[in-house]
Structures are given as structure tokens and as C-alpha cells.
Amino acid sequence: MFRWLPGLYYDLMLSLAGVLVGVVILVVGGTMLVRGASEVAASLGVTPMVVGLTIVAFGTSAPELVVNVTAVLDGQTGLAFGNVAGSNISNLALVLGVAALMQPITIRGDVVRRELPLLLLATTVMTVMALDGPLTGRPAEMDRVDSIILLVLFCVFIYVTVLDFVRVRGKDPLLKDISHSATVVIPEKGRHQWWLLLAGGLLLAFGGKLTVSNAVVMAAWLGVSPAVIWLFVVAVGTSMPELATSAIAAWRNESDLALGNVIGSNIFNSLVVLPASGVIRSIPVPAGGASDLVFSWVMAGALIPLFLFGNAKLGRITGVIFVLSYFLYAAWRVRYPG
What we know:
Blueprint: H1 7-43, H2 48-59, H3 62-73, H4 77-102, E1 105-106, H5 110-131, E2 141-142, H6 144-167, H7 173-180, H8 193-222, H9 226-238, H10 240-251, H11 255-280, E3 283-284, H12 289-309, E4 313-314, H13 316-335
Antiparallel strand pairs: 1-4, 2-3
């Protein structure tokens, strides 16, 4: 394959193919892991609603978590940072924008409405912690102390969310969307549920290693920061589960599920994926990383007036603006990588 290309271009195309294959393996592995975990949970008597709120919601972020840990263990901290920043940006601008283009997104329940400020809070705390170094004369980085604090905040978030769902159980449209969503249909106890878990985990590990190694080669060949490749190639690929879930939910007019999927994924990325990597090794903010965090924060902040102070609706025109914002920012970051 690609043997007809000159030597240098052959290496580039080979590394690009390796990245794309690795991303596909990650997505397939994540899907199998979610499916297997859902079946195991069902066999243990866990309700579809709980499965939808936990396993499916956080399982779609499994590829990001695996590649981040793999990158940090390989010493590629720039990739770990770019993965989280890129995934958050693509979820807010691209995934949510595409979902709004398919069907205007309207908040109907209180649970998602209350999670929006939590999304902005999580994004703000992560941004401040990553960029607080220069205020004290240190390099900007996410160190172990910052990471532990973020993980504790995630535990608080889970506690508040569970209490919220218990209080409005059976009354909130999000719970009805989850109960009827194809992504959380739980089959009868099967023979292969544990095999799905094992196979999904192995595929995630292999896909993570393949993606990281080829992304480093590709970035070196192009002469750009590996974080740029991670922001707009790998991050978009690992966001495909969120895009598929949100698009299907929007098409079925399950607005709360479409928005809740994006909110949950970004909170998980900010409060689990990045700090889990930071506990292993401090993650310096790479060149251009500050603008990535600020852009992600601006996109999260834009949802507050749209949903809380307006007509609680993300229409198609706003969806176009979000998608265009993503591609314009991507073009700017490639043009000015740092």
C-alpha cells in the first residue's frame, strides 16, 4: 500500500493510515466494552436507566482515557493534553453543532439544565489549574495535586448527579429518553458478555498504542506539534461515539439525551481523563494549549445564555455557527500551532 508514492510521502501516508486504523480500533473496542459492561450489569440486575447514566455515558469516553494513559506512559504528555482539549472542543462545537443541524435541541427537563453550570464549572476549574503556573512563576502544567483535586470534584459531581436523578426519578424527560434509547437496550443474559469485556479492553489497549506511536511519527514528519495532530485528527476520531449517540438522539427528538451525552463526556474528560493522566505524570501545557483551553471554555460558556436565559433552544442557525467555529479554529491552530 502507498508503494507508488515517493519515500517521504509513503512514510506520511503509512503513519496517517496507522492513526486512522488505531482510532477505528479504539472506537470498536470502546463499543464492545460498553456492550459487554451493559450485559454484565443487566445480568446483575442493574436497571437500563442506571446503565444509561453510567456505563454508556462514560463508556463513550473510554477511547480518550486509554489513549491518554498510553501517551503519558510513553512520555508523550503533549498528546495527552491535546486529546482532552481536542475532544472537548469537538464535542461542544462539532458534535453539538451537527446534532442541532439535524434537529433543534431543546431542554425539556431540569436535570440537564442543572448540569450545564456544572459543565462550565468543570471547564473553568480545569483551565485555571492548567494555567495557574505563570501566576506563581512556574511553567503552565497539570500536576499531581491539581489532578487529585479534579478527581475529588468528579466524585462530588457523581454524588450530586445521583441525588438529582433519585429526586426526579420518573419525572424528567432525560430519564424517559434513556429508557427508550437504542444505546441502552439491554439484551438477555448472554454467554459472551465477559468475552466482550475482555476483547473490548484488549482492542482499546492495542488501538491506543497504535494511535499514539503513529501520531508521533506523523507530527514529526509534518513538523508540527503532536498536540495539533491530536486535536484535529485523533480527538475527532475518538469523539465518533459521542457524535453517533448525539446524532441519533437528536434525530429521534430526544434533545435532553443529545445534550446530556455531550455534557457528560466533557465533564468526564475534564475531571477524569486528564487528571488520571496527570496522576501518573505531570502534564505541561504545550504551545498553543492555552488557546485550546480558552476556546473550550468559551464554547461551554456560550451554552449558558443560549439555554438558561434564552428560549432554552439550540437551533439550526446556532448549529451552523458552532460547526463553522470548529473548522475556523482548526484552520487557525494548524496555521499557528504555537
